[in-house]
Amino acid sequence: MRRQWMLVAILTGLVAACSPGADPERPTGVPTSASWAGNVEGGTWVDCEPVPSVPNRYACRTWFETGGAMIAEGQYLLRHRRWNQQALRSEYTEPASNALPGFDTFDGRWIRLKGDHVLLPDGVIIYPDSPEHGKRQTYRLGVEAGAAEAY
Fold first, then answer.
1. Among 13, 36, 117, 143, which has the highest number of CB atoms less than 10 A from its own CB?
2. pLDDT tens-digit profile of 45-90?
């Protein structure tokens, strides 16, 4: 009986350790305004602020989970995502509200939000490799528009 209780205690500890919990430790250099977007497998830190006088447009920055190096910086448009079963593709429309419902993940291009919302890159997005070097990519509603430029 004692062995069974020990086994239960060990399994409970393992489940608790593997369960999603608090955000990971914030790296130095990532602002306190940044929110965690990820899960137990990893993720990124995301900080978005509304662009004044332009509805549904946000200036966003993303950072790596560990180390805090910036991944991307630029402007994104908030869109509602809907699956079109007949066309077998996602369609994006203006949302009913411009409030961000919370960050889910960042795939290197799009910032996926809770529910059926997404922030699509729109304009020039900067992907710095270092403070002196990186890449600039132009997007129109989430689609690459033109060649990337190194700087």
1. 117
2. 999 999 998 999 999 999 999 999 999 999 999 999 999 999 999 8
Q: What is the pLDDT of residue 4?
A: 41
- At which residue do the structure tokens 């995502």 appear? 81
Q: What is the pTM of this model?
A: 0.80
The candidate with the shortest Cα–Cα distance to 111, out of 83, 86, 144, 75, is: 75
With beta carbons less than 8 A apart as the criterion, state whether 140 and 77 touch: no
Structure tokens at 133: 């070097």
CA distance 84 to 16: 39
| CA distance linking residue 96 with residue 130, whole number of Å | 38
Identify whether the C-beta of residue 115 lies closer than 8 Å to the C-beta of residue 64: no
pLDDT tops 50 at residue 5: no
Structure tokens at 62: 């993303």
